[in-house]
Amino acid sequence: MSVSSSAASYTLNVGAVGVIGSFMGMPLDAMILGAIAGAVIHGLSKATTRSHGIVTIITSTLLAGAFSPTIVGWLIHNLNLGNPESEASMLKPLVPVVIGACWPWLAPMVHQGAKEVFDALVGRIVKLVEFFGGTK
């Protein structure tokens, strides 16, 4: 009896129009567009190390491939701009580019916000311990 492992398999079909297929369940076209957008944004930012550039582009690729189908489906369902097929043809290339380009800009802000929330939480825990007679 053979075992099918579709999560680790990939398919690729390169035609005259573009690349169609999936890699670990993520659409290849979204991954490629996310990688290109991440590379362009990284190229426009200040110079960093090569490893940082590689990690930036790989992260752009994975985020665009993982989240773009869900975001496109949600936007088509909630925007109601008219014809869902024309919305899909417009949003499928746009959303991966936005994800791949925006995450390097958004990540420091999310990190700073999470750091502030964590510091506030630790401060409240310390005040609670002091209230019940504990020491620092």
What does this 3D model show about the protein?
Helices cover 70% and strands 9% of the residues. The chain has 3 helices and 3 strands. A 3-stranded antiparallel sheet has the order 1-2-3. The radius of gyration is 21 Å and the shape is extended.
Based on CA atoms alone, the radius of gyration comes out at 21 Å
Q: Characterize the biggest β-sheet.
A: 3 strands, antiparallel
Alpha-beta classification: mainly alpha
Q: How many separate helices?
A: 3
Q: What is the mean predicted local confidence, pLDDT?
A: 80
Helicity, in percent? 55-70%
Q: What topology, given as strand order, has the largest sheet?
A: 1-2-3
So what's the oligomer here? Answer: single chain
Based on DSSP secondary structure assignment, what is the total number of beta strands? 3
Principal-axes geometry comes out as extended
The low-pLDDT segments are: none
Distance between the termini: 62 Å
The percentage of residues in β strands lies in 5-15%
